[in-house]
Each structure stands twice: as C-alpha cells, then as structure tokens.
Amino acid sequence: MNSNRLTFLLLGLLGITALAAEPDRGASRHSCCASVAASPGAPTDKSLYQLDSTWTNDEGVAVKLASLRGRPQMVCVFFASCQYACPLLVEHLKQIEAALPENLRTNTGFLLVSFDTERDTPAALHQYRLQHDLKAGRWTLLRANPDDVLELAALLGVKYKKDAQGQFMHSNVTTLLNSQGEIAFQETGLSLATDGFVARLKSLAE
Questions:
Q1: Could you tell me the CA-to-CA distances from 40 to 69, 144, 179, 184, 186 in Å, in that order?
Q2: What is the mean pLDDT of residues 135-158?
Q3: What is the DSSP string of the chain?
Q4: What is the pLDDT of residue 37?
Q5: N- or C-end of the chain: fewer Cβ atoms within 10 A?
Q6: 106-135 average pLDDT score
Q7: How many whole angstroms separate alpha carbon 168 and alpha carbon 117?
Q8: Angle between helices 85-99 and 195-205 (to 10 degrees)
Q9: CA atoms within 13 A on the CB side of 148
Q10: Which band of pLDDT confidence, cut at 50, 70 and 90, is reported for residue 9?
Q11: What is the pLDDT of residues 160-186, one digit of tens each?
Q12: For residues 53 and 151, is the Cβ–Cβ distance under 8 A?
C-alpha cells in the first residue's frame, strides 16, 4: 500500500479505534458502520483488507488479509508465549464462538495475529492451535514481518512493547470486522461479556 493510501485509511479509522497506552482499567466499547459500499472486486475505503502485506499462517502458507473477506472476523493481536492476558483474550473468543448459533458459528472467522515475530514461527503457532483446540477452517493464526504487524496493530488500536525479559506489554483489544474487513465493534479489556459481540454478529447476518 502506498503512503497516501495508508494515510487515508488511518484517518478514516482514527475515530473508531481505541489506542491504549496504559494497562487496561476497564472495558470500553466502540462501534462504527461503513459509509461506502463495497464493489465485488475491491475493499471499501475503511477496510483493513486494503493492506497489501503478505502474511504466513500456521501451515507456512503465504496469504493476504483480503483472503479473509466474505465473512465476519473476530480479531485479537497476541503472542503465543504470553502467560496472562493473551490466554484470557483467546478464551473470550472461544466463549463467543460457543455462544453463537451453529449456522452463525460456521460463518464467522476467528483471527489471531502475533506480534512476536521472532518466536511465533508457523510451527509455534500451529502448536498453539493444537494446545487450544482452535478448529481449522474457522480459526486463522498469522505472522508477518515486524513493520506489517505494527501497521495492522495500529489500525486495530493495539499498542505493544517488548521488555528486557523478552516479554510484551500490550493493550488488550478485541475487534469484530464485518465481511468487508471494516471495524464493526471493539471492546478493550480482559473481563468482557460475550453478549455485545454475539448481538453484533447476529445483526451482521440479518
């Protein structure tokens, strides 16, 4: 993506993302709707699928974010060796998955994006999938180079920083993207109910 296009996308998303520089002190809610309809062949002006970065999934296959287009995606940015916040974020996604009606569950994707570009190899992410019973076809685990991860994280309102021990301090943001890759709803924090996301997923399916 060229710099002008990225700047436009960033400006379009500034009003709907929550950047959290400090540890979470509660949950906040954000919602938005797209003002520009999508054509069949191109993302909308607010779609994260405009990003042209190449990612690698836990099978070692190179993919574009636009390959996720076509169904809503629940998204968290995380790292696999996290012992506190990230397992709670993933568990929250699994609770949302379990709370969905079967027909809606099969038409919702769950996306985990790693910012630990050194340790979270495809093999490490695949092991994480197995450990947490993240079903293939529904859950996508991705990694990329540091710049591409930073770009996507910024658009999702996620900040992270590596400490001297090799661990990460990071904001905890759970995001719902609609089928076009636009941010439809976000919550920040760890103690989150499933109701808000379930209700919005149902509304996207109507």
A1: 11, 27, 12, 19, 26
A2: 96
A3: --HHHHHHHHHHHGGG-----S---S-EEEE---SSPPBTTB--TT-GGG---EEEETTS-EEEGGGGTTS-EEEEEE-TT-SSHHHHHHHHHHHHHHHS-HHHHTT-EEEEEE--TTT--HHHHHHHHHHHT--BTTEEEEE--HHHHHHHHHHHT--EEE-TTS-EEE--EEEEE-TTS-EEEEEESSS--SHHHHHHHHHHH-
A4: 38
A5: C
A6: 97
A7: 12
A8: 50
A9: 19
A10: low
A11: 888 877 788 899 999 999 999 999 999
A12: yes
Kindly report the backbone phi and psi dihedral angles of residue 50, in degrees, each rounded to the nearest multiple of 5, phi listed first: -70, -25
Cα distance between residue 96 and residue 107, in whole Å? 13
